[in-house]
Amino acid sequence: MGNRGILHGADRRVVRDWQVRRWIACRLQFRGRHRSVMQPGSYTELFFLDEAAALADGHRPCAECRHADYVAFQGAWRSAFPDRSTAADAMDGILHAERRVRPFVKRTHSADAQSLPDGSYVVVDERAWLVGGKWLHAWSAGGYTEHVPRPSGSVTLLTPPSIVEVLRAGYPVDMHPTGATE
Question: What is the domain count for the chain?
Fold first, then answer.
C-alpha cells in the first residue's frame, strides 16, 4: 500500500497527485491497525500489485511498518551512492525530482533494456512491463499476464533512476509470483 498524503476530498474524489515528498510503501497489515479507505482528512491509500510496482512509481519502503526493508533500502542506497545521505528526507528529495514532470504526468527516463536489474519497470508498446531475468512481464491489476523476451536497445524506463541503482546494488525487491524469473 502506498501513501503520498491526502489526495482526496470529502466526497472521496482524487483532487491532487501528491501532497508530500515522502512517498512510502507500507504493509497491508501492521500491528492490528485497521483503516477505512479514503477517510476524510486522512491519507489516501494507494494499492500496488507488488513492491516492484510501488518502486516504479517512486515509493520507497516505510521506516515504521517495513523497518527491515527500509534498512535494506538504505544500505543499497549507501552502496549505490556512497557520497549521498541515507536520511529519509535526503532520499525523498532525490526521488521526488525523478517522479513527475508535473502533477499527474510521470517523469520517464531512457535506459538500455539489457542493463536493467530485475524489478525495474519499462514501457514497451505503450504497456508497463516488469523486468525479470531474460524476460519482460506485462503488468495487470491481477498479476503479470504475458511474458516476452527482454528486448535489446533503449527502452522507456518507468522506475526512477535512483531506485534502479538501489536495485542494482542488491535491494531484494518483492515481486508478485506471476513475475517469477528464470
Answer: 1
